[in-house]
Amino acid sequence: PEVLLYDEPTSGLDPENSRRVADRIKSTARTLGKATVVVTHDYPFLSPVADRILWLDHGELEGDDTDGHVDMLARFCGTGTIAYSQCLDTGDRHYAGLVAMEKQLQAFRNRGGLPYRLIALPLPRPLFDHAGRRLPASYANFLVINNAVLVPVYDDPADSIALKRLAAGFPGREILPVNCLTLIRQYGSLHCATMQLPQGILDT
């Protein structure tokens, strides 16, 4: 590959292993001579690895118990494309925050000074738990695997829109919908329920 892309590589790790991951990312990039993109909420450990940082300080989904992890909001589909949660309903409590986030994304520039290609993902209709609290349903919480992308769906009319738009962001990969109505009741979705680590990071 021309670019190494790490998606929240230190999420859930203790400080020692977070430092090990950061060191491995830096050494791998240096050894292979590859550009590296790291998507993370773990700024203290990974900021020394970076020479450029794109920071979002707007956007949060109600019911998200992670304090706004980026994997519910905006995701790289490749080095030049970002898919993100968009809200068009002015009466939705998410509207102001997600519009502000969208403007930030539009202002981001790559190394060449060009804007990123943005793919807007709709929000599904509001879902609520047994206590009436809104759940953080998001299509941005997809999971990239070998040759495919697993996309959370919620028996919602917006499911098909999200699937079609993500297909444009991942040419050559199969787009596979996964019903996440049960999983979202744990206040997360597909990507939240997984962990990807570079081989050799943890002792087994």
Explain what this protein looks like in three dimensions:
- This protein has 204 residues and is of the alpha/beta class.
- It contains 4 helices and 8 strands.
- The chain has helices spanning 15-32, 43-46, 95-107, 158-169, and strands at 3-7, 35-39, 74-78, 81-85, 117-121, 143-145, 148-153, 174-179.
- The strands form 3 sheets. The chain has a 3-stranded mixed sheet, sandwiched between helices.
- The radius of gyration is 17 Å and the shape is globular.
- The model has no long low-confidence stretch (mean pLDDT 84).
Contiguous helical run count = 4
Poorly predicted segments: none
The description of the largest β-sheet is: 3 strands, mixed
- Total count of strands: 8
In the sheet with the most strands, the strands line up as 3-4-5
What are the defining features of this structure?
204 residues, 3-stranded mixed sheet, 4 helices
